[in-house]
Model the fold of this input.
Amino acid sequence: MKRTALGSALALSALISAQTAQAQKHCVEPEDAADAVVYMMPTAYESTLSACENEFNSDSFLTSDAGRAFIDGFRGQQDQRWSGAYRFFKVFIQKETKGDDAMGEMLANLPEEALRPLIDGLLGQIIAKEIKPNTCGKIDRVVELLSPLPPENIAGLMSFILPEVDIKDPPVCGTTRPSPPPPVIELLPAPPPPPPAYPESGSTK
Done:
C-alpha cells in the first residue's frame, strides 16, 4: 500500500530557498512563492515519508487519515497554482543553468508543462535529502498544528509573511527596506548638587 507523508509546511520555502540562492537581480513575487508552497506540498508529502519511514508510527499525524485528507486539498489545487509556481521555479532554473548557455536556452524553450515533471522530480530529491530523522517528529507536530487551515489560508499566510521577513535567497520582490535609523539616546542633565548644610538657628555648644 502506498503511504504518504507531508513535509514541514513552515520549512518548505526554506528548503527550496537554500538550494536556489539567486543573483541579486532576480526576485520572486510573494504570490508566486505562495503558489509554489501550495504546489509542492504533495511532493513534500511523499518525500517526507520516505525520509521518515523509520520514525513515523501509527500515532503520527502524517500517516493518519487526517494527514492524508489534509494533503488532498493541496493536490486539488496544484493545477491552478502551477503558473505562479512555475514563475518561482524559473528563478531556480536560471541560477542552475548559469554559465551553460545551451542548457539554459533549451530549458527556456521548453513548454511549461514539459518542465513540470522535471521540477516535480527535482523537488522530491531536494526535500528528501534535506529532511533529517531527528526532525521528523517536529515536522509531524508542525503540520498537525497547520492542518485546520485550508490551502487558501496557508497560501495567504505565506503571501503575507514572506515580504515581512525580507528573505534574501531568493529575494522577494518589493521587500527592500531601508535600515532603521540608530536609536536616539538623550542624555539627561546631571542633578544639581544638594544645598550646603547650615547649623540650626539658636544652637549652642
Summary: Residues 3 and 63 are 7 Å apart (CA to CA). The two ends are 107 Å apart (CA to CA). Residues 1-25, 176-180 have pLDDT under 50 and may be disordered.
